[in-house]
Amino acid sequence: MVGRRVDSDSFLKSSAEECVKRLTNLRQRAERSLSSDLAVSKSKRNLLDGVINDVKDSLRRLQAWITEFTKADQTQDANLLTNATTLFESLSTAIDHAITNLEARLSHRRMKIKGFVLHKRYDLEDNLSKSLKNVSNIIGDLQSVLPLVREASNKQTDRDARKSRVFQQTSKTNNVFAQGFQEIDPIETEDVQARALQMLWKHIPRLEDLEDKAGNPNDQGDGLYYDQTHIATARSILVDFHDAWCGTDALEAYPPSEGIKEVARICLTLAGMQQEFLLGDFISSGKTDQNLPFKKEQLETILQGKNADYADTFYTEQIRVSPKDWPDGGHAEFEAAEPLPYIFLQGPIMRGAYGTVVKVKDLVSGETYVRKQQVIPPGEQQVNEAWEHLERESERLRRLKHRHVVQLVKSYRRGRAFGLIMKPAASGDLRIFLDRFQADKFYSQAGSRDSVWLRPYFLQAFGCLAYGLEYIHDCKIRHKDIKPANILFQNATQIPARFLWADFGLAYDFSETGDSKTISTNLYSPRYAPPEVVSNWRRAKSNKERKSSVLPSVEEVIDEGQVKMKAKFDRSLTSDDEIEAHGRAADIFALGCVFLELLSRLIKSDLPLDVTAQFADNIDNLCTWASSQKNLEKAKDLCPLFNIAAGMIRRKPEDRFQIRQVVKAVMKADKAFSCELCRREYDKHRSSRTVPNSTSIATSVALPQGPAFALPPSPVESISWVKRVNSAMSNGAISPGASRRRSIFSVTNPTTPE
Hints:
With 754 residues, the chain is of the alpha+beta class. Helices cover 51% and strands 9% of the residues. It has helices spanning 2-35, 42-75, 78-112, 119-149, 156-170, 172-182, 192-200, 228-246, 264-273, 279-285, 296-302, 311-317, 380-399, 430-439, 450-474, 531-549, 584-603, 619-629, 639-648, 659-669, 676-685, 694-700, 715-730, 743-747; strands spanning 331-334, 342-344, 350-352, 355-362, 368-375, 407-414, 417-423, 428-429, 442-443, 448-449, 477-478, 487-489, 499-501, 508-509, 553-559, 562-568.
């Protein structure tokens, strides 16, 4: 009776939670359908939008009812009970209304396209209708016992009796099992336990959409996990099953195992596998849910004979009832067929050389994240390269903590797939919104065209992106792959940052060496690569072609008395000495290219290069274009930004503005060119910033005298001025006491762009 009383105490709440589960499942399915390729017509979207809104309203009402009933059940306060009743009746009406609306809309939809329908649309409609009717049936059961719940009493004995009556009225499985056991004849039945267990599976809850996904490494059924409601329901059914078995006199000589009440999770796993007959092996071995998760070696011992073939599938499927311990900041290893605890909200939002990015929802926390995953084809080299790429990105992200940089939540490896879970879940990348700005379609949520509502955010991008990149460089990290596709944009309210730096898989950490320069001949994003990187790539390609075309000369050598032929290459024809190192200035160039693309959209004037051309090959044309556009009426407010962008794409790395100079110039130009948080932080720390200018350099060392060393009047002349000063230092024209500070001239442009 103790177990039954505990179950009766929680029956109403668990039933209400079952409503929540069904409504949530319905809403998620409707949202997935809304974002699928099938949901393309306006009328279908309106239909699904209506379903989602109805379900959300029902969920809100049901959660409120559960809260009020919990309070009423504890206090027996008449007012609270009345409130709970009102909310519950309102919920029932809302569900009925939703069903009516759904059926009416489906009927209207069928009439509009009669004779031309896809079977998948019919399946969607039937599933939605069935889900809503199931919810209505559960609520009807709850409503039938509500008068009993409202019987207020301050005596615990009366309350227990009342709950027992509720349980007796609603516990249907116990009676079903009792009748089934009466039909079992132990004399004629060869295996009483096997016969009894056959009755059990009709009542064990199952996950929808799990068919063909159990143990399938190609479609693991990510996001399909059993929740506490499933587990509690299964446990209650097993208790009924056990009690009914014990209460059957004819089976007194064949008592059930006590452990059968403690295998709810195992039953759910086997139900998902559709291999229910394996339960007998678990019962015989004495294993229960407390032994979860099982190791492969244990399963091979538990499952007898040919049943051992199912050990691998159970091993990967048990995660649906016993999730891995995977805290934030941690890394988890999954088998190829194990599902991830995430619901996928939409298709890929970004694709790149190192993976796809999708939005996901955490089943435990309910948080929405971004998942970046790379699935590697067979081949040890490809696996190692992809793993190094994502591992490098995760290491960089763990060091970077800034609102304008994506944040790493956790990482995982599943078979040949490597993944990172990050936040926030942005709306898309800058490339997508640059295209939207140009297309300039009407956006209903903003109530205006894209060029109107996006304009103030695009203006903020200059300061926010520069401020974020300054932070990244200050952390001794070079991005190395700056382009619009690697900049995320958030289109939501109440967020700390609109623009986010992402994709640090190629980033270089120079915290140990202190030198940001690297020697590389790879060309990852040709359009935004600076001249020095493009030159290295072309030189390396030319060197490779020359090496393959140069024929070796042959000379005779004597080896232990034998004359042998030896090939000899002319190394002077295949030298790689021309490959040069490049550093943070490469990031500056790429960001300058992004700035120019933003400016091009803002003034609605195309850049003087086609979509496949490289910025590095068109620097002169771009500077001429910027100079001509900034004087136009439509660009008069953007003139400082054109000057800054032109200073960032100079051909020589040492001639380009430094990132701190860019930040200072943007912040000085206009408040509209950054978000409020960036400007506030900049103003707060401006006094401590170390951006050098002509005056600060002039007072830091004893400068040589003479007209040749006069301070430069313009940024362009500043570089030659630095060279003259460095030359004077090397010739002894500056006092030896200043030699310790010579690095200022070798790494810093002495002027600030205006």
